[in-house]
Amino acid sequence: IISQILCIYKCFKLKERKDLRKDGEIYFEVRYSKKVGIPECPYKCKGCKDKREYIVRNGRAKERIIKAGKVGTQRIYLIHRPQRYMCKKTGKSFRNEKISYRWQRITRAETENLVKSLRKMSISATAKEFGVSVRTVSNLLDSIEIKVDWTKFQDMKDIKLGIDEHSFRGFKMVTTIVELNTSNTIAILKSDKKEELKGFLNKIPYKIKQKITEAAIDMRTSFKNAVKEELLGVKVVADHFHVVKDAQKKLRESIKIEEEVTNNNKKIPVKLFFLNGKKLLKEKKKVKKLYKTLKEHPYLKEYYRYLLMLKWMYKAETYEEGKRRLHILIGKMEESEDPQVWRWAKTYIRWEKEILQYFVNRTTTAKVEGRHTHIKLIKRISFGFKEVLRYTKKVLLGVMPERFIKLPNFITEGTTYCKQLSFLS
């Protein structure tokens, strides 16, 4: 029963060592049964057809204590001496590591449970829970290379990508890529550079590329160029939330300038400019206050009008109506005497196709922003990160579904003898 609880192979027998028993700790000695046969040779030698032909037993390795988890409040330890084998043809030796992975002092089952716990817990909390050091958990996380199983997307008719960046540490940004139809996180790239995104898109299998129809991005020229260069024929959509956000940013900047120049550093009520129309109409006092502020600062009136016209443009029900309203907005901007507004209009001219593409399928990056909220929770639980690669792996373990993750083989002996984690296979 203990062997089944600890997920120990049937070819091993456990015998309790009562002389080593302590409070909260139980020790078992691992013994090999007669069912243990000769394993296959891990070395791919030329001319060797039978992988067991030249393999003989070659004693046992040094005794070591392995942590096997908890049963109730008792922590279980295994005293194990791995069986050694040797190839008579090459003289090379290897161990039959079936209880634990090489160089690790916890069992395979505990290693798999530890990786599962990393999906919901911080590195330090996981180390404390499993009774190992933080360095052990960090090294295990570093050894994991998470890859997307693209075969899971083969049955989909069309694929839509959402691409956006979020903060890893301060002003250091990383790129999040989400499949919008299924809301599954595909990747988190280690930077927000164009070359990094192009490298990822280039590695997507050809059959999957043919199914990608749209890519929703924020207003970053580097993202737009990367998608157009690597995904030919894919429609790029400028996310309307980011377009409106960019207009709000310009309005905030104009408010700051107005405060410094004409208002003697007196604060202008900024929140009034960003109230929802329905909420604003219900509160007459705020409406009067807004009108009074706009009369006192006509410079802000122009920027506020462009923001309202942009929101009016996105309320269009058809592509043609949206195009007509966008052209009206650009025309009004070009009539302005403010050079900053001219640059603003040129931005909309450059992004006209991407902005209007929104009216075709109403594709947005809202699901990417929702994923960013989940990522913020993981960052708070983990108390921040310093290394970007470790950060991307930790976050991907937390946000990607298990069925979409492929973990590489854990090396148990040398570079050829490998076993894969079973809980994700």
From TrEMBL:
<dbReference type="InterPro" id="IPR002560">
    <property type="entry name" value="Transposase_DDE"/>
</dbReference>
<dbReference type="Pfam" id="PF01610">
    <property type="entry name" value="DDE_Tnp_ISL3"/>
</dbReference>
<dbReference type="InterPro" id="IPR047951">
    <property type="entry name" value="Transpos_ISL3"/>
</dbReference>
<protein>
    <recommendedName>
        <fullName>Transposase IS204/IS1001/IS1096/IS1165 DDE domain-containing protein</fullName>
    </recommendedName>
</protein>
<feature type="domain" description="Transposase IS204/IS1001/IS1096/IS1165 DDE">
    <location>
        <begin position="161"/>
        <end position="393"/>
    </location>
</feature>
